[in-house]
Amino acid sequence: MRLAAGLLAALLLGGCATLDRNQCLQANWTDLGARDGQSGYATSRLEEHREACREHGIIPDDRSYLAGREQGLRYYCTAESGYREGRRGAGYSRVCPLDAEAAFLPEYERGREIHQLEQDADALRNNIDEHERALSDPNLTRDQRYYHRRELDYLYRELASLRRQMDRLENGPRY
Asked: Which terminal CB of the chain, N or C, has fewer other CB atoms within 10 Å?
């Protein structure tokens, strides 16, 4: 039992590493930095790579990694990318330089708002489904039917309002 627990712990800890031994050995630190920059990772990602490679006796090339990351951030820190990241509900780690953030952040916020509205709409649709299923029960009293219909009217109005908000945000000024 202890052996199984130890193996599981080793697997879990190993799963946390950003790079394996071969990746550490063959790393092109400029390319890795560029990929991390394009993904919006903070500079702390280099420390994660350092930890992963330390156990294999490999030291990252900080200068190359950071130069690559700066190149990658040029692709990440755009209005288009901000919108896309926000729409998918991704977090933002404040990695963009101030001049690029001025374009990135408004679109990111707009995308995040649409993402939240979509989640709210999903919750409303689930609630609508529950009330519609309840109405199919032949044993409902008149008051229960009235309650479910009244709730459905309210939920459909809310859903229509969310759709209008999403339309305004989606069709508003873009990057």
From this structure: N
The count of domains in the chain is 2
Question: Which amino acid type is present at position 100?
Answer: A
At residue 92, the pLDDT reads: 96
Alpha carbons 85 and 39: distance in angstroms, whole number: 10
Return the residue matching tokens 């330089």. 97
Q: 45 and 99: one domain?
A: no
Residue 66's nearest CA partner among 24, 88, 37, 26 is 37
What's the domain range around 98? Answer: 77-175
**pTM recorded for the entire structure:** 0.77
Asked if residue 151 and residue 85 are part of one domain, the reply reads yes
The reply to whether 138 and 65 lie within a common domain is no
Tokens of 29: 């630190």
106-146: pLDDT as tens digits: 999 999 999 999 999 999 999 999 999 999 999 999 999 99
35 plus 89 within the same structural domain: no
